[in-house]
Amino acid sequence: MPGWMKWILVCLVVLIGLLALALASVYLGSSGRMNKTYKIEVTPVSLPTDPAALEQGKHIAVTRGCYDCHGKDLGGLAVIDAQPMGLIYAPNITPTGIAAGYDDDAWVRAIRHGLTPGGRPLILMPSEEYYFLSDADLGALIAFLKTLSPIFRESHPVSLGPVGRALVLAGQLKLPAELIDHEAPRPDAPAPGVNAAYGKYLAVTCTGCHGPGFSGGPIPGGDPKWPPAANISLDPDTGIGTWKETDFFRALREGVRNDGTDIDPVMPRAFGHMTDDELRALWLYLQSMPVKAYGNR
Questions:
Q1: Residue 128 and residue 199: Cα distance in Å, rounded?
Q2: Would you give per-residue pLDDT tens digits along the chain (297 residues)?
Q3: What is d(CA 169, CA 163) in angstroms, rounded to the nearest whole number?
Q4: Are 201 and 190 in contact (CB under 8 A)?
Q5: Cα 242 to Cα 91: distance, rounded to the nearest angstrom
Q6: What domains, with CATH codes, occur in the chain?
Q7: Burial letters for 212-237: b for 16+ Cβ neighbours within 10 Å, e otherwise?
Q8: How far apart are CA 59 and CA 144, in angstroms?
Q9: How many CB atoms lie within 10 A of CB 273?
Q10: Residue (of 115, 71, 120) closest to 91 by Cα position
Q11: Alpha-carbon distance 132 to 144, whole Å?
Q12: What radius of gyration do the chain's Cα atoms show?
C-alpha cells in the first residue's frame, strides 16, 4: 500500500475515533443531566370541587397552552419529531395516560417543578412559567385535569438524537427543572383585573418563546422547522409599536397581523381564548415594557 494511502487511513481512523469520542461525551453528558434526580419538598395545594373553579381550571388549561402541546383531547401529541433532533412527545395526561400514576403532589411536582414523580426532569415542560401560578389557579387546573375523560392513546418516551442531546448539553434544549429556583418564594398573584399587574402575571406564558423582554428571535430548543418568535415589544420598526389594542386582539383571536398577513400557526392559538379583560391586561403590561429591538430576547 502506498504511503499516502496509509496516511489517509490513519487520518480516517483518527477522525472516526474523535467523532465516536465526541458522541460518547455528548451522550453521557446529556444523560447525566436528563437522569438527575431532584429531591424537593412539594407544597400541596387544595383542589376545589365547585363547578366555577373547575371551569376556571379548564380556562387555565386552554389559555396556558396545555392543549397546544398535549393535543386537542390532552391524549398526547408529538411536539417535535425531527431527526437528528429526536422525538419529544407530550404525553397523554388523561386518566388512562400518565395521570394514572399521579397523586395530587405528583401533579404539583410536574406542573410547578418540571419533574416526574420520581424527581427526574421533564423536557420542554414550561414549568419555569407555571412555577408562578397561584395556588388557587394551580389547584383549579389540577382539579380540572382529574375530571378528564380517558383517552386510549399510547404515549411515546422522549428519544433524543445526537443534535437534541447536544442542545441539552449546550443548554439550548431546556430542562425546566434546571431553570427553577425550587425554594424561591412565589409572589402573591394579583387579583384578576384590567391592569398591567395582572397582565404581567398572564404574560409569563409568553416568555418561553418571545423571551423575558418579549423581543423574540429563534426559540431555544424549538423544532428546527419553527419560525423565530416575533418581537412583541413596542419597537416601532420590528415590534408592535404601531399596533392598536384592536390589532392586538385580532392577532390573538384571528391569527392575523395589523398588515393583514397571517401569523404562523406555530404561534399558539390558546391566547385567543383569553377573556377580553385578560387580553386588555396583557396589552397594558406590554405597553409598560421597555422597547427592544428584535432578537434581544
A1: 17
A2: 566 677 777 677 767 776 766 667 667 777 788 899 999 999 999 999 999 999 999 999 999 999 999 999 999 999 988 888 899 999 999 999 999 999 999 999 999 999 999 999 999 899 999 999 999 999 999 999 999 999 998 888 998 888 888 888 888 888 999 999 998 888 888 999 999 999 999 999 999 899 999 999 998 877 778 899 999 999 999 999 999 999 999 999 999 999 999 999 888 888 899 999 999 999 999 999 999 998 877
A3: 10
A4: yes
A5: 40
A6: 51-179 (1.10.760), 196-288 (no CATH)
A7: ebbbbbebbbbeeeeebbbbbbbbee
A8: 9
A9: 15
A10: 71
A11: 19
A12: 22
Which residue has 371551569 as its cell numbers? 55
Residue 146 Cα to chain centre, angstroms: 21
DSSP secondary structure, 114-125, as one string:
-B-TTSPBPSS-
**Grid coordinates given for 242:** 404601531
User: What's the rounded Cα separation, in Å, for the pair 173 and 220?
Assistant: 6
Length of the chain: 297
Q: Where are the alpha helices (DSSP H) in 35-119?
A: 51-63, 66-70, 104-113
| Paired strand residues for 78 | 89
Determine the Cα–Cα distance for residues 37 and 47; give it in Å rounded to an integer.
27
